[in-house]
Amino acid sequence: MEKGSANGTVTSQDGRFRITVAGKNAVLVISYTGYETKEIHVDNDKPQNIVLALENKGLNEVVVIGYGAQKKASVTGSVASVKGSDIAQSSSANISNAIAGRIPGVIANNRSGRPGDDASTILIRGFNSFGGGTSPLVVVDGVPDRDFTRINPADIENITVLKDAAAAIYGVRSANGVILVTTKRGKTGKPTIQYDGSYGIQQLTRLPEIVNAWQYMTYYNEINPNTYSQADIDKYKAGNDSNYRSTDWINEVFRKNAPQLAHALSVSGGTDNVKYYFSGQYLDQSSNFRNSIEHYKQFNIRSNIDARISRNLKVNLDLAARREDRTYPTYGVNSILHEARSLYPFIPVRWANGSLSAGVSNGRNPVILVTGDPGYDKIKNYVLTPLAGFDLQLPFITRGLSVSGYASFDINLRNEKIFTKPWDAYSYNRTTGEYANQKTSTAITSITQDDRLTYYNTNFIKLAYDRQFGLHNINAFAGYEQTSSNYSQTYAYRKNLLSDQIDQIFTGNAEGQNATGASAQDGRASYLGRLGYNFDNKYLAELSFRYNGSFNFPASNRWGFFPAVSVGWRISEEKFFQEFVPFINQLKIRASWGMMGSDAVAQYLFLTRYQLVTNKNYYTYFGNDYALASSLLLSSTPNTNITWEKQDTRNIGFDATFLNGKLNINADYFRYLRKDILAQRSASIPLYTGMSLPAENIGKSLNRGFDLSVNYNNRKGAFQYNIGINLTYAKSKVLFRDEAANVPEWQKSEGHPIDSWLVYNTNGVYHTKEEIDGSVHLPGAKIGDLWIKDIDGNKSITSNDMVRRFESATPKFVYGINLGASYKGVAVNLLFSGQEKAKQMILSQMQGSLVAPPKWLYDGRSTADNPNAQYPRAFNANDSYNSIYADFWLKNAAFLRLKSVEASYSLPVHLYSRFGFSSMRVYASAYNLLSFDGMKKYGIDPETNNITGVNYPQSRIFRTGINVGL
């Protein structure tokens, strides 16, 4: 960049560049991420060799923290971040999926790859509560409660996670951790245009293999003998009769490939007085349902403008808008997949005459259900997030004093329309050879319209002071923040429309109609502040507080005080350390404590709540004609003493740098003591009291663990490479949870993980009659049933024999491995993510009495010919011997997954510079490419955490694209 002007350029991957400057006295400012900025004087037009020195990141890197930013060297809390450029490498369109494996302390599990419904479940350092919410607070550009999952990935500058007392500045929203998202802003220079376009193919990572027709008949004959004739079984087994063919309903419902298309365009630049960043994005995702109407489209626009009005006054105006269009089948995804698992595999998709079969009943052929024939469910979501802010320096009062603030007014409008109509589906009578259309029994015509509008308003102002006095550096601020939200819903339903070709609610019959609505309010007010001090950049201390009021609690308990303190010692700056430990470039030891809160509980628990009853059992009769009248029913007992959950948060850690900045190690140990968790005393108070007990602040839990990250980067000439490893261990434990006095000790949750499994312990499967006769067993137990242990020793199997396990579905260990290398324009980046110490329950037969068993269960079942089999005899959901929560069905959910891989090539400048382009890069990437785990045989993804396996699987995405700059 030519100093003092907007004239600039970028280098090629091998470092070459060309620039025309104003004159011989021009000064070039050369900068590159990870290196010190350098200025050189241009005194001739000859080529020059310029070498940049590695940046001392420990000193100069700026880290975003709550309500501000600090140099990394001064940070005393446990803070981790990831760059937006790393996020953009992921082929997933959902940002929450892109952070898995990248940030120590973050547990992100993706449950589904369904377009528009593919967000990961995020925890910061594991589970801490069993009474309220556990999701972290998300803050986007300083504004709390904004959704970050659907932001254009190209708009993200960085994502920072506050894991310890550094989050306490957010008061009653801090206990579950805080995620800070910062979007890109303009920089001084000529306009820079960036375009990124990609096309991808989505595939499902894993699907269960289901039995065929004759296997299904054989299996259910073993449950109920003679349900199917041997003659029919033989015909399906032979497969040479077109009327006796098996149907793989899973394969018929899903297709192998579904397209994903994305375009993103941004323009940024500015002068010393005005800087701007504008962007737009279009995303189009199809579903892996075959011939389905399911589709997701997303439109994003963003405008971030910064203007200097005077020497001391800067203002910013940010505006982001998003539209999401979801088109789904009228029947939910779980209903469709349930039908695909429950529908007999001997029923064809189409009959011999080409007509679609009606399934078992009501025409519920899943191949039809994914189409638009039964109607649709269309959801349109509109999000508008404007913000106006200012920063006024006050040097006329004293140097370093400033006042700043912002006001935001977010709008979220959600419109949903569900249209159902009957569809053509035929049954076939094999005796008469006749087909009958079951259209009249499939569904009625109906329209549901559900409109929801939410306003979010946030106002914030702070007075800040940042000044250095010799070796003393002080930075402080005091502020006030107020948030409020108003929610309203209007719901209308009508059925028996005039025509199934007119999807308008006015065509419905008034009889049976439903018109209702709801509204809710929420709000918080806070006084907050922070005082930071460092002496000689060696000794660091920070105090923060938040006096926070929450709308969720009664006036008497509405306000709480949340203090935090942290200290740090940059011991590497001591002369004795530099003399005796020269191989450590930087070492900072830090510790923090904070009292944090969580108000993530149901609203209005302190009020007496009623519900309008329309069930006839609650009608009140008046007069001699016994006319019915609606009534109000007391739905809950209030607790006027309710308050927020409190968390004592302690953290100790260090940050170390070796090998002149090439090797960085960060480690933390944490201890979270959560108390006043909301729970009911229902377990210890008998039901016959007739009391409907309110939630009380009685629960208590402990969560302990550590984070570790190790990063190494180096450069050998034109070859650069980096290796990063991060690891998190988090173990939760219930300290108190109200449990009945007669609950056996081995079932109590105290001392166990918050979401621990309660199951029957088993000795496997009965293989002989002698094993049955020699053990305590359920009445009527047979060879092939689960061998349940008699834990309480009372010579009978009851629910008292269930045991609380130390395993849970939440992993105790999560880790990520980042590998990257580049050479003369060619770059490869890989991200592995994994988890350990997690157990998932697999009970596929629990979803229904006629569900088709998976192939692994069928092949490994116990039979008269194979009594020593691995799995129980044939059973369904009604089987009390085998369709039960047992340790036998708990499977290891550990995995190592190649989460993301990207290979790219930056073309040489001379190939495109003549056409006005400043950069050009082509790339290919994959998401969820490989998974190494023990769940493959079950056809279930280890991240799913779905007992029956009836869910839309995760997606594997292959993507190619191009990125060009002007």
Automatic annotation (TrEMBL):
The lineage of its organism: Bacteria, Pseudomonadati, Bacteroidota, Chitinophagia, Chitinophagales. Its main location: membrane. This is TonB-dependent receptor plug domain-containing protein. NCBIfam families: OMP_RagA_SusC (TIGR04056), SusC_RagA_signa (TIGR04057). One of its GO terms (cellular component) is cell outer membrane. PROSITE patterns: EF_HAND_1, TONB_DEPENDENT_REC_3. Belongs to the TonB-dependent receptor family. Pfam families: CarbopepD_reg_2 (PF13715), Plug (PF07715). It is found in: Cell outer membrane. Keywords: Cell outer membrane, Membrane, Signal, Transmembrane, Transmembrane beta strand, Transport.
